[in-house]
Specification:
The chain is mainly alpha-helical. The longest helix is centred in the middle third of the chain and has 29 residues. The chain has one domain. The chain starts with a helix and ends in a 12-residue tail after the last helix.
């Protein structure tokens, strides 16, 4: 049971990271890259 829950957590983390990338890419389209250099440290 522990292994499967860890796998689910990893999958969820991966999905969240992918969603975050999509959101950041959308923000980059809206916001000029010059104002976005702060977000690159993440």
């Amino acid at each position: 049971a522990k292994v499967s829950s860890e796998r689910k957590n990893k999958a969820a983390t991966r999905n969240i990271q992918q969603l975050a990338k999509q959101v950041i890419n959308k923000l980059k389209e809206i916001i000029p890259p010059t104002t976005f250099h702060l977000g690159n440290g993440m």
